[in-house]
């Protein structure tokens, strides 16, 4: 395996040092490092070195919707965005609710080789919310599943949610809840508020998210398990999680890049590229999730990368699919909304986008500080450049980015997966 | 004006221009030959994704009286799941050279998408989209009121019923306030949008309290099935609290009129004796609908004709 000497990088935004990578590991961090013969030097002057990013919430669509994304194309997009590990959501077809399906996804990820793929198992059979899936079999499979989610649908039945939380204690699993009270969101199309009433689009009220989060935090406190809240989107949700953490209750939460930046006003265009679940909220909610991410109430950023083929978005709003792509723009959106606003430092970004998602997902190969002896999962990022988002430039199979035409800061220059550069000079290496 | 998508897009002058033009169009109805050559050679497509015979024939009559060629395109069902997508339909109409497309669609914003997507270049008239808007209905309502009440400036207009799901209510609130009227919407709290702060109207839950100060009352159609989603307990209770019967009608000032966009649920939101009373202008609304739609098509389509000739 080749060795690489990364020179002059700012280590997680701090001191400038060199990184020597050999045999898939970081072997030294410092200055004037002696490189073995045949080492390739990568000039990283002015670049920030971050630990490889970990996305706890990615839709890779395979098996079933290979017209939207495959494990291969999705992990290529991940690598391009600086992610070395992605957790693949279970809402595939067939649903990832058996050891067979999660092992298939896991193996596809290994074969692709652009980013490590950790399958998420469904909580209930077929994600139908009535019967527990064989969580233990998925946990014991080669895919070693620890995160379980019916994402796309809420585990709305309180008794079933309680049992799921209890059951995964046996193998230290975590239930990642898509918090959406179904009866309050029947036919929901966008955030419920003044604008939904004017546009005549059925509202998705904040309380439908907040009520489930509050319920699940209490359920989890009762049974002492691990609860993770997917794509938290409202001020009320931030306040509930903040209060719970203050009381010492166990809960972790994620926010998506799009909820950190975009607001419901975009729905006034009736352009379904802005249709997403949970919906884009208000400016006040955006401020709240930024504050929550800054003060640690929200633990991580997760993309909820949700690719869709053109025909599922190039249509009237109510017929369109929910979801937005996000892997390739996540770090730029976080720089724009959190770094350039002085709410986070780069060390915090390493925490929110690498260390902590790896810790919640219980993987040890990723999310390690950049120091000697850890797997060489490294991102080099140039925060000084600007780019305008062009959907056609995406390496994802899908084009449904809500950031089209926006100018965002920063660019991933290189991504190393266990010492192998999968992105170099801003381009995929193969 | 290139399109008519929302009543809120109309300035007061534009709205009055449409109403004044409709007045001229309406005088045509009294002549033995009801046809004008204004849109000869122009093609108007009635693109109806929802069944609505009354609105479609109203537009059809309007376009024909202006000598336009009319194509009725009934395309039930939505894109992706059933049949052809909205986009492919639009591309087809573009290829056929549609100058104007009158669009009725179950999805809020569909006419907006047709107009803004670049799929077609013709003018788009929103003939009702989902629970969003129905601007020509609001125009014909305003036209009808104006004929009975004169200027709408300062006139008190009460709209009663399922505002939450009503495209008629949305367009009327926007247009009537533009024309200077004082609008109050009355409904049970469950049938009002949760946040109406941006609506240029007052809201009330009490019909009896509003009627004495009303120059025109508009009763909206309320679907009985709404009670299955707990919007109200029963049809009888709805009628008791929000239906317009002759006892309630008696509270109205002497000159006040009663409107309904149709189709009516007689016995639900409006009693038969009110619907058939002398205060009811419901049948006249239908007549005026043709005049309004003539005015809209004329103003949208004859203008582009002149542009092409001068170009």
Automatic annotation (TrEMBL), chain A:
Pathway assigned in UniProt: Pyrimidine metabolism; UMP biosynthesis via de novo pathway; (S)-dihydroorotate from bicarbonate: step 3/3
Gene Ontology biological process terms, A to Z: 'de novo' UMP biosynthetic process; purine nucleobase catabolic process
Function noted in UniProt: Catalyzes the reversible cyclization of carbamoyl aspartate to dihydroorotate.
Keyword annotations from UniProtKB, A to Z: Hydrolase, Metal-binding, Pyrimidine biosynthesis, Zinc
Catalytic residue positions: 304
UniProt name for this protein: Dihydroorotase
Catalytic activity line of the entry: (S)-dihydroorotate + H2O = N-carbamoyl-L-aspartate + H(+)
Residues where Zn(2+) 2 binds: 151, 178, 231
Cofactor(s) in the UniProt record: Zn(2+)
Residues annotated as domain Dihydroorotase catalytic: 48-235
GO cellular component, one term: cytoplasm
Pfam families to which the protein is assigned, alphabetical: DHOase
Species this chain originates from: Kribbella rubisoli
InterPro entries attached to this UniProt entry: DHOase (IPR004722), DHOase/Allantoinase_Hydrolase (IPR050138), DHOase_cat (IPR024403), Dihydroorotase_CS (IPR002195), Metal-dep_hydrolase_composite (IPR011059), Metal_Hydrolase (IPR032466)
Domain of life where this protein originates: Bacteria
From TrEMBL, chain B:
The Aspartate/ornithine carbamoyltransferase carbamoyl-P binding domain, residue ranges: 2-146
Record carries keyword Transferase: yes
Keywords from the UniProt entry: Pyrimidine biosynthesis, Transferase
Catalysed transformations (reactions): carbamoyl phosphate + L-aspartate = N-carbamoyl-L-aspartate + phosphate + H(+)
Pfam families according to UniProt: OTCace, OTCace_N
Keyword set includes S-adenosyl-L-methionine: no
GO molecular function, one term: aspartate carbamoyltransferase activity
Domain Aspartate/ornithine carbamoyltransferase Asp/Orn-binding: 154-300
Residue stretches in coiled coil: none
InterPro entries attached to this UniProt entry: Asp/Orn_carbamoyltranf_P-bd, Asp/Orn_carbamoylTrfase, Asp/Orn_carbamoylTrfase_sf, Asp_carbamoyltransf, Asp_carbamoyltransf_Asp/Orn-bd
Pathway the protein contributes to: Pyrimidine metabolism; UMP biosynthesis via de novo pathway; (S)-dihydroorotate from bicarbonate: step 2/3
GO biological process, one term: 'de novo' pyrimidine nucleobase biosynthetic process
Protein family according to the UniProt entry: Belongs to the aspartate/ornithine carbamoyltransferase superfamily. ATCase family.
Subunit structure of this chain's protein: Heterododecamer (2C3:3R2) of six catalytic PyrB chains organized as two trimers (C3), and six regulatory PyrI chains organized as three dimers (R2).
The protein's role, per its UniProt record: Catalyzes the condensation of carbamoyl phosphate and aspartate to form carbamoyl aspartate and inorganic phosphate, the committed step in the de novo pyrimidine nucleotide biosynthesis pathway.
Full protein name: Aspartate carbamoyltransferase
Organism listed in the record: Kribbella rubisoli
């Amino acid at each position: 395996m080749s060795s690489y000497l990364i020179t002059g990088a700012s280590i997680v935004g701090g001191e400038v040092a060199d990184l020597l990578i050999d045999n898939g590991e970081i072997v030294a961090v410092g200055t004037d490092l002696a490189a073995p013969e045949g080492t390739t030097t990568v000039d990283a002057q002015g670049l920030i070195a971050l630990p490889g990013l970990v996305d706890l919430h990615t839709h890779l669509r395979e098996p079933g919707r290979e017209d939207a994304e495959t494990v291969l194309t999705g992990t290529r997009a991940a690598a391009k965005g600086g992610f070395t590990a992605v957790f693949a959501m279970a809402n595939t077809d067939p649903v990832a609710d058996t050891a067979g399906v999660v092992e298939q996804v896991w193996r596809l990820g290994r074969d692709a080789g652009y980013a490590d793929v950790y399958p998420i198992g469904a909580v209930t059979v077929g994600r139908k919310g009535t019967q527990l899936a064989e969580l233990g079999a998925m946990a014991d499979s080669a895919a070693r599943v620890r995160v379980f989610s019916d994402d796309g649908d809420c585990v709305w039945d309180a008794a079933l949610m309680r049992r799921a939380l209890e059951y995964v204690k046996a193998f230290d699993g975590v239930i990642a809840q898509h918090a959406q009270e179904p009866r309050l969101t029947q036919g929901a199309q966008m955030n419920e508020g003044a604008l939904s009433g004017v546009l005549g689009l059925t509202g998705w009220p904040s309380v439908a998210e907040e009520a489930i989060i509050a319920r699940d935090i209490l359920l989890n406190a009762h049974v002492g398990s691990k609860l993770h809240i997917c794509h938290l989107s409202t001020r009320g949700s931030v306040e509930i999680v903040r209060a719970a953490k203050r009381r010492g209750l166990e809960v972790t939460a994620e926010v998506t890049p799009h909820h950190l930046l975009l607001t419901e006003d975009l729905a006034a265009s009736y352009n379904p590229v802005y249709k997403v679940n949970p919906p884009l909220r208000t400016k006040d909610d955006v401020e709240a999730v930024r504050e929550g991410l800054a003060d640690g109430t929200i633990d991580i950023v997760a993309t909820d990368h949700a690719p869709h083929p053109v025909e599922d978005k190039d249509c009237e709003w109510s017929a369109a699919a929910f979801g937005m792509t996000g892997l390739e723009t996540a770090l730029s959106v976080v720089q724009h909304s959190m770094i350039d606003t002085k709410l986070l430092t780069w060390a915090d970004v390493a925490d929110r986008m690498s260390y902590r998602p790896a810790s919640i997902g219980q993987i040890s190969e990723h999310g390690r500080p950049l120091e000697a002896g850890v797997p060489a999962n490294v991102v080099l990022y140039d925060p000084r450049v600007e780019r305008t988002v062009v959907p056609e430039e995406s390496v994802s199979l899908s084009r449904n980015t809500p950031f089209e035409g926006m100018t965002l800061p920063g660019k991933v220059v290189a991504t190393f997966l266990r010492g192998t550069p999968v992105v170099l000079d801003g381009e995929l290496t193969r | 004006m290139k399109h008519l998508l929302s009543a809120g897009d109309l300035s007061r002058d534009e709205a009055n221009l449409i109403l004044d033009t409709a007045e001229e169009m309406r005088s045509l109805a009294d002549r033995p030959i009801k046809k004008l050559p204004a849109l000869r050679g122009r093609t108007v497509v009635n693109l109806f994704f929802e069944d609505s015979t009354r609105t479609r024939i109203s537009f059809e009559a309007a376009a024909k009286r202006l000598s336009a060629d009319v194509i009725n395109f009934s395309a039930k069902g939505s894109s992706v799941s059933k049949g052809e997508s909205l986009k492919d339909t639009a591309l087809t109409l573009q290829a056929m050279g549609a100058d104007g497309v009158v669009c009725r669609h179950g999805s809020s914003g569909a006419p907006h998408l047709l107009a803004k997507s670049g799929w077609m270049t013709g003018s788009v008239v929103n003939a009702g989209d989902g629970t969003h808007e129905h601007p020509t209905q609001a125009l014909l309502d305003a036209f009808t009121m104006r004929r009975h009440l004169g200027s709408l400036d300062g006139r008190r207009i009460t709209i009663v019923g399922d505002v939450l799901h009503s495209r008629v209510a949305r367009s009327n609130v926007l247009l009537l306030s533009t024309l200077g009227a004082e609008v109050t919407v009355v409904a049970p709290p469950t049938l009002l949008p949760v946040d109406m702060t941006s609506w240029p109207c007052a809201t009330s839950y009490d019909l009896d309290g509003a009627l004495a100060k009303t120059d025109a009352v508009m009763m909206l159609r309320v679907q009985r099935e709404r009670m299955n989603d707990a919007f109200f307990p029963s049809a009888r209770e709805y009628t008791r609290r929000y239906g317009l019967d002759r006892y309630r009608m008696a509270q109205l000032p002497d000159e006040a009129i009663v409107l309904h966009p149709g189709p009516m649920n007689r016995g639900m939101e409006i009693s038969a004796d009110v619907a058939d009373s002398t205060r009811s202008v419901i049948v006249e609304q239908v007549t005026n609908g043709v005049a309004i739609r003539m005015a809209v098509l004329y103003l949208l389509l004859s203008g582009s004709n002149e542009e092409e000739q001068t170009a």
